[in-house]
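Hello support,

Our group uses your service weekly, and this is the first time we've seen a run hang past the timeout. The protein is PD-(D/E)XK endonuclease-like domain-containing protein. I'm not sure whether the cause is the sequence or the server load. Input pasted verbatim:
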Amino acid sequence: MLYNLHLKNDIYDAIVSYLFSRDNASSDFSHCLVLTPNYSFSYSLKKSFTKPCILPKIVSTDAVFQDFAIKNGYFKYLNFSKKAVLTLYNLMKDEKHCSIEEAMRIFTNLQQGKIEHDDSIHSEIYKKFTYHREYKEFKELALDLIFRDYEEVIVAGIYITDETSRYIYEKALANNCPIFIYGLEPTYDAAPEHFLYQTLNFQKEKNLGIASLKKDRTVSQLNTDLDPNFFPETKENKEKSQVRYDLRFCEESNEHHMVESAVTYLTDFYPDVALVTANYCLVKKIGARLSNKENINLIFKEKYTAHPDGIFLLKLLDTAILGETDISFIALLKHPYIYEQNTEIIDCIEDSIIRTTKSKQITQEARLFLEKTKRWGKGFLHAKNFAEYHIKWSDAITNRITCKGKRILEFIKKYSPRFTDIYEYRQVLSFFLGRQYFYPFTDNKRFINVFSPKEASFLAYRNAILLDCTEEDFQIRDPLVMLNLFHILSTKRSIVIFNKEKALSRLFLQIQHSCAGNYEIKKEPTQPIETVAVVKEKLFVPMEMLPKKLSPTMIELLINDPYKFYVRYILAIKETNSVVVKPGQKEFGYIMHKVFQGASKTHFSKEEYTRILGNELKIYATRYQYVKNLWLPRGLKILEQFATFHNERLGEIDTLENEKELSIFIADGLELFL
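Update from on-call engineer: The timeout came from a worker crash unrelated to the input. Re-ran successfully.
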């Protein structure tokens, strides 16, 4: 039976009422499966079950195919659509057709069962492209198992748009399963390009009865537009068809507008959205706004009660995907799995890599430990058998992985030669870990996940909001990995929100240029900001001290703020965030430079110098005790050395000024003065 709703929001309540209204209805619906078009529909349907009950299995078609592929080892069908379009693109490239849009159009025709046999090129491509026929058989096999394994299957929100959806309707009709859709009216004359066209034809062809609900609406009142809850929005740009990236850049005039934009986008994209930022001050403001207005909470790791194995294995994988830096590597070694048994070695490694105090040299044992772990880490990205390297890398730094965790890796190792890239490997690993180690909250709290740019987990979400991020926040050394990361982001609906006062990095500027117009107009401040005219202090920089090559960023900084240019590029002292970065040698040099600058403007005395030094150290001393204990004596020692040098220099000048002239008489009567 075909159940037709006139309002899309009624479809969720109609399915719940259908389950509870039967004579033999109980509160246990575990025997039932509801097949949906996408994750958003599944999530909205789950929220409609307000009565206490055991929910049916609510799953989208993509999740069915992914689950079936992973469980049965069909890893080549993971992310099949992207691979298929690229394969078609490469085939067309050989035929002098280089348009990615053309490849996407042909793939859509293949899914809908259409092919232009009159076109010789397309016919030849159709013969070579055998993957689609195999993929069609794979999907039919997965759907057959669904209808076989569950006592009752409900099809919800799926229209006939291709061969797969038509097969779902045929299976539902053969098994006498109910179908719930909305907006279907037999008297409506849909055009061939309309999304209802094939569904109406199927209804007329099979002579399906329609149980229409809420018949008080007329045909003219029907909303015949494409339903975004059933079909994700696709942004078409006919004027500029060659759009490489699908990121949207949103430039705001101040932090207040950045928070407003982030709240708006997070609310629109909820629930399948991730917030990526390293600015936790903005996170607090956004969290307060979402909690008060939308009843949505921002969470970090509190979402899960996780077994340490799951966190540790994913942490290893994130380190391999996003690139290995000193900070991320030390953070990995500080994991309790490793740190508890290797405390002295890891402290020694941290002293030698990050901390600036050279009081302890790295020991031979620590050096071997470091070399061994980094060796497996470097080989990870280039290995064909990812799981094998994952096991060896885990064994290299800990022996506390449980048998269950190693069995998962051994199982994946069996199928790993079929993987094509590391992101498929992460998808498979997360699939198994999610069933073994991660236990989501069972209450009805609404939440959005917040990720650091160092975590690769945010790539699993359909939408991503990059708030106040630059390429430096991601800490990826390899530019190819960085470009690959943003290529993945371009396949999602991603928003980059930044402040116009903060210049974009060169990589973001390049991506922004490739967005082909996806750039939002900046907002002006709602209230005037009082400004005070400041005369910039001129700073003389000798030509021999200037770098030989200047980047656009360096030139702009040299023109607008020469003092910052001098500190950053001449003295090589970089400003850092005192909350996130542990202070080291660069921070100490930056403080000392500010102390000398401040002391030189007044009478240079020991008391004045000590006072200025103490004020500057307060920035870090409240958080890090060693700053006051180590840096204050070191700064006073530098003062003593400088005073000694300064006094010796003044003494030499006085000596030269007090020397008498030396005259030499030559035989012919000439006198020479020296």
